[in-house]
Amino acid sequence: MINITELRIGNYIVNTIEKKIIEIIGIYNEGFIEYFENEIRKKIDITNLEPLYLSDNLVDQLVNIGILLKDFDSKDIYYFAHSTSTYFFVNNKNEYFVGMIDTNLPENYRRITRPFKEYHKLQNAYLAIYNKELLRFSIE
Q1: If you average pLDDT over residues 63-85, what whole number do you get?
Q2: Does residue 139 carry a pLDDT above 70?
Q3: CA-CA distance, 3 to 31, in Å (whole number)?
């Protein structure tokens, strides 16, 4: 289950009733969110939602659609497309986090976020770092 306080407009999560990825367009303290389906505004109770979990497959899809760029010198480091900085996205033993290059460390990076497994938390971390939204992707 998702804690409603972790969510923001624009987050991608899973509607467990329809088994579809949805994008949040409204959040209500009463425990539900709004989203569009076929250009119709719908509401769903938070108990019928779950995170869109990060996985190798999802990360590969994010690379394929240009949200992340693969660092071909390192198996588990990805850069954020359209962002010029030393921040990057790392998969370390199936724990994902945002890091920063630090050549003084043996791994050459320093964690700047706690590990997370959910895409909406990656979206939130990106917003906190860059003060802009992570690129959106098409939901089919």
Answers
A1: 82
A2: no
A3: 9
- Distance, CA of 133 to CA of 128 (rounded, Å): 9
- Which helix (H) or strand (E) segment holds residue 8: the answer is none
Q: Are strands 77-80 and 87-92 parallel, antiparallel or unpaired?
A: antiparallel
Give residue 129's identity as a one-letter amino acid code: I
Strands 20-23 and 95-101: unpaired
DSSP type of residue 133: P
Q: Which two three-digit tokens encode residue 58?
A: 């999802």
Could you tell me the pTM of the whole model? 0.85
Higher pLDDT, 97 or 102: 97
CA 74 from chain center: how many Å? 21
Gap between the Cα atoms of 65 and 23, Å rounded: 17
113 pLDDT more than 70 = yes
- Nearest alpha carbon to residue 120 among 3, 7, 19: 7
DSSP alpha helix (H) spans, 18-105: 56-64
* CA distances for 7 relative to 11, 12, 26, 66, 106, angstroms: 7, 9, 10, 24, 35
d(CA 70, CA 10) in angstroms, rounded, equals 24
The per-residue pLDDT for 5 is 92
